[in-house]
Automatic annotation (TrEMBL):
The lineage of its organism: Eukaryota, Fungi, Fungi incertae sedis, Mucoromycota, Glomeromycotina. This is 3572_t:CDS:1.
Length: 42
């Protein structure tokens, strides 16, 4: 996004949230691989 856009802050915030969600998903997948018994119970 371009800083001059009126909605730049909204788009930048959305991008940050998406990055956080992607990182969270990666962490969950990694923890599921490390301990598949707990993962299968959820």
């Amino acid at each position: 996004t371009e800083p001059g856009r009126s909605d730049h802050i909204i788009l930048a915030s959305a991008n940050e949230r998406l990055d956080l969600l992607i990182n969270l998903e990666k962490q969950v997948k990694e923890s599921n691989l490390k301990d598949p018994i707990i993962a299968s119970q959820t």
